Amino acid sequence: MRADAQLSKGDLILTLRLSLLRRRRALRRLWQDAPLSVLGGIGVIGFLLLALIGPYLTPYNPIANSFADRNQAPSLAHPFGTDNFGRDILSRIIYGGRNIFALTGSATLIAVGLGTVIGLYVGYVGSWLDQIAMRLTDALLALPSLLLTLVLLGALGNSRFTVLLAIVILYVPIVTRVVRSVVLDVKTKAYIEAAEIGGESRFHILFREILPAVLPTLAVEGALRFSYAIFLVASLGFLGLGVARPEPDWGLMVSEARDWYALSPHMLFFPSAAIVALVVCVNLMADGLRRLLEYSETD
Amino acid sequence: MLHRASPAFAQTPPLVSSVSLRPLTARAGVIRVGWESVKRLDPAFASSDSEIAFLTAVYDYLVDVTTTDAVAPRLAQSWQLSEDGRQYTFKLVPNAKFHDGSALTAEDVIYSFNRLRDPAVGSPKISLFDNLENIGAPDDLTVVFTLRTTEPDFIYSITDNSAVIVRAGARNLDTEFIGTGPFKVERYIPEDRTIFVANEDYWQSGLPYAAGMEHRYLDSNAAIEALRGGELDVVLRMPNARFIALQNDPNLQTVTFPTSGHDALRLRMDSPPGNDPRVRKALKMATNREEINAFAQLGLGSQGRDAPIGEFFAEYFDPESPLPPYDPDGARALLAEAGYPDLTFELFVPNTGTRPDFAVVIKDQWAKAGITVNINLVDEATYYGDDGWLEVQLGITGWGARPSPQQYLDFSLKSDGKWNESRIADPELDALIVKAGTSVDRAERIAAYKAIQRKLAEDGPLIIPYFFPTVGAARKEWQFEGGFAVQAFPGRTNFSRARQA
Asked: What angle in degrees, to the nearest 10, is found between the helix axes of A160-186 and A145-156?
């Protein structure tokens, strides 16, 4: 890295161009090998955009009832139809997507961040600290995720914050293990030894030398965690947990639509489809990230 | 299928009923009814629809209650109230026999009722008979109930779901099912089904028309699909939206009846802001009851007017009670005047039935009057289990169907009521409730009930926007003598007059 600093401006641009070129080449190869994973990535970006700007596009309030508009089938005015309270389902899905991204996104980021720091540290330092950390993660991994979440919701109150906390508690040990396993491999490499002999600080070694090697794995793991978190939040919403009516929540919408499946099947279809589509897209994207990682390793 | 009538049986020549001289066809068919599974079958403890449906099949009540809230004879063929209004004398049918062959006598009736009011048994129904002094039997076929004070609705306690007649001295009522009823238990398979066969010696000769009955224990979704697919013949309890979908099914007949069951949104009156009559009035003005009724009951319910007395109690109901008109802007102004311009409520709602829908609509309606409502859905069993429902400031409480309005008033609107959840304490209202519950003068009772409705409409802690319907769907292969009728408490629906077409 120090050598980089001495590069001229021209060299830097060249390096950037090269890396972009390499990335573009990798993406092209990915498109040939697994086009679905590219589409998945585009889908996730699409959902994200919808969550960000969608609320400015829809003219409907997702929680305002309208007696005259009850149970309307999909139409131009309501592309996804309306529910039994006359609320626009597309608007509810957009706002619900926003909630799900905010909750699962932030929870996943926190979990990945914490897991990475812990994984780097215990993996690099090792010894008894590593042993304790690993036995603790074993214990946490042994708990079924939905059960642990239900217990937490019961103990700490039924709120979005509790759900966030539950996701963090559930996923930190998983991320820790993944990061640690990569660290165990990386720390035996010669350049780490060189850095140690060079008298670099532990912080420098952990975050400047080891972390870059962990990042690709972390990206894949993060994406997978994100998809599981979406599923968990949707399951909780279906059970009516972590969300208060009449807030739009995909899982809760599916649950509310069950009694209406014969009269207004669109009420059930669209939120279910939204959950499936987002989870599938995120998984495909994770698969794509994994492949990209393999390409760079084989390069 | 199990227990279909055998061909030999079907060829039996038609019998002639001694009562109606109408030719009777042989019993045929097994009527399959979907219920949720049962836990307690001892009459003293049975409570759910499926449990009461089991009792209705196996046992008889002394008197029955009809879909229009009339009292009808059953094991008591007639009864009389004494001049002073304190003695009910019941004449029993002479030919009723238990499934073990023993004859029904007054002793069995006395035992059955004494068992319900015996503290050692511990039935939750014990308080129904607080006013009962004693039960006597001048002869084998006469029973006399003597009350401490007049109680014109006491006859409804005699019709109570738990008040079936068991054999004198009967024990193990959770496992031995010897009644006088139209069906005998052939096999009870926990969590799966109960198989009943017709009681050939039933005292109502010719009944039941079916050769047998099966109660299949399924959840509501599975039961509805089984009904559509022809695996069940009758389903009586289901969400309104499901019921409406079944109304279009050409293979089904559907009915709906009004009941007295309702959801009450109630506010505590012993603390701010509910202790200010302007706030109570503003909340009434901010509420559009017709819209709540339509959203939650989908046109199947009957309209409520903030009192626990509705269309079901036709004689007592006042459709003109003076409710403040719907006026969200007026409500907002009134709240500002009362010093609550930005009122925020935490609304506690049990997570069953149409209560969550009610809450969603009230949140939307009250928002138009500047009132913020945060809905807190709570697990029903927990909410009622630890008495939390009596403590919360604003909550929705579900009240099951009852044959008389008196219980709602005695329990929840009298200052010393055991479930006075709003903490209302109005001596005038108390006096009216006592008068309505004890007067033997019909006109006086009606006047008292109407005065109570007037008070609750003008200023009360309750918002009652609707009364539940009771619904039923049956396959057209079955006909019901007197029409397909579902009781306000669906478990009380009697299938002895169901006939396979």
From this structure: 140
- Chain A CB contacts of B242 under 8 Å are 259, 262
DSSP H or E stretch at residue B100: none
Provide the b/e sequence for B405-421 (b: ≥16 CB within 10 Å): bbbbbbbbbbeebebbb
Q: Which residues of A touch B240 (CB under 8 A)?
A: 259
Report yes or no: B429 and B473 within 8 Å, Cβ to Cβ: no
Measured in Å, how far apart are chain A's first and last C-alpha atoms? 20
Domain over A39-63+74-298 is classified CATH 3.40.50.300: no
Does residue B241 sit at the A interface (CB-CB below 8 Å)? Answer: yes
Report how far residue B420's alpha carbon sits from residue B409's, in angstroms, rounded to the nearest whole number. 9
Q: How many C-beta atoms surround the C-beta of residue B372 within 10 A? A: 12
Min distance A86 CA to chain B CA atoms (Å): 10
Helix pair A265-298, A250-257: axis angle to 10 deg: 150
Residues from chain A contacting residue B292 (CB–CB below 8 Å): none
pLDDT tens digits along B175-209: 999 999 999 999 999 999 999 999 999 999 889 99
Largest CA distance in chain A: 76
**B30, amino acid identity:** V
Q: Is B56 exposed, middle or buried (0-12, 13-18, 19+ CB in 10 A)?
A: buried
CB contact set of B254 (below 8 Å; sequence gap of 6+): B243, B246, B247, B471, B472, B473, B474
Q: Which helix (H) or strand (E) holds B69?
A: none
- % of chain A at pLDDT higher than 70: 96
The verdict on pTM exceeding 0.90 is no
**A96 CA to chain B: closest CA distance, Å?**
17
**B208: preceding bond cis by omega (within 30 degrees):** yes
Task: Provide the H-helix boundaries in B79-202.
Answer: 106-116, 154-158
DSSP code of residue B126: G
H helices of B59-146, in order, are 106-116
- The C-alpha atoms of residue B377 and residue B357 are separated, in whole angstroms, by 11
Q: What is residue B24's predicted lDDT score, i.e. its pLDDT?
A: 53
- Of how many residues is chain A composed? 299
State residue B306 phi and psi, 5-degree precision. Answer: 65, 15
Residues β-bridged to residue B378: B350
CB distance B308 to B405 below 8 Å: yes
What interface predicted TM-score (ipTM) does this complex get? 0.82
Interface contact A85, partner B, CB < 8 A: yes
Between A63, A70, A259, which is nearest B242 by CB?
A259
Question: What CA–CA distance (Å, rounded) separates A238 from A100?
Answer: 13
The crossing angle, in degrees rounded to 10, of helices B427-438 and B442-458 is 150
Tell me which residues of chain A, numbers 195 to 254, contact chain B at a CB-CB cutoff of 8 Å: 240, 244-246
Chain B contact for A132 (CB, 8 A cutoff) = no
